[in-house]
Design brief:
It is a single chain. By secondary structure, this protein is of the alpha/beta class. The protein has 5 helices and 7 strands; from the N terminus they run ααββαβαββββα. The strands form 2 sheets. Strands 1, 2, 3, 4 and 5 form a 5-stranded mixed β-sheet that branches. A two-stranded antiparallel sheet has the order 6-7. Strand 6 and strand 7 form a beta hairpin. Helix 1 packs across helix 5. It is globular, with a radius of gyration of 16 Å.
Length: 185
């Protein structure tokens, strides 16, 4: 979700995609630097081709990995924008929010090790609003865990692989669920 050309969270997203390919899962990478989703306005965003494309891909998935940089002890604004857009139901009811019942894994990149819980407010919102299952494993990588600008240390690589294996297993198990959620309390 970063718009930074040299984003480490984007590099982590590509590492995740490669690891998921290695596991043998079907997956897609949505890069908001390439697919510019308009700002959420509860109106015209729903007619944009970017919204239609992203909503369709997320709706068809059983799991989502949100990769975001950490700014000011929180995930980036672009992540919240995508959650608001694809999670909401258009006023005309033409589409159901795409986030209901998804397994969600968070991947964060940060400068320091202190903000490892930056995703937690979004996790709670996704659980309550969209009945998402939050992967109990997440990926948090700070500057000291990078070997260079293109790779992470072995311990972090192992954490990425375990986190993604858990995400895939949860998604496969929950694909068998007998319920479907919508807007409810």
């Amino acid at each position: 979700t970063s718009l930074d050309q040299d984003s480490k969270s984007r590099k982590l997203a590509h590492m995740c995609k490669a690891a998921l390919n290695k596991i043998g899962t079907d997956n897609n990478l949505i890069d908001l630097l390439k697919i510019r989703l308009p700002k959420f306005d509860n109106g015209s965003v729903y007619g944009s081709p970017e919204y239609v494309q992203i909503h369709g891909m997320v709706s068809a998935s059983s799991g989502i990995i949100f990769a975001s940089p950490v700014y000011n002890w929180s995930c980036c604004a672009e992540l919240k924008n995508i959650i608001e857009a694809i999670g909401s139901t258009p006023p005309d009811g033409s589409r159901k929010g795409a986030l209901f019942d998804k397994v969600v894994t968070f991947v964060n990149s940060a400068g320091l090790p202190h903000s490892y819980m930056a995703f937690s407010h979004l996790a709670i919102s996704l659980m309550i609003d969209f009945k998402c299952i939050i992967n109990p494993y997440n990926i948090y990588v700070h500057n000291r865990q990078w070997i260079d600008d293109s790779d992470v240390n072995a311990e972090t690589r192992a954490r990425i692989e375990k986190t993604l294996k858990v995400a895939v297993e949860l998604s496969r198990l929950l694909d068998q669920r007998t319920y479907s959620s919508g807007w409810e309390i």
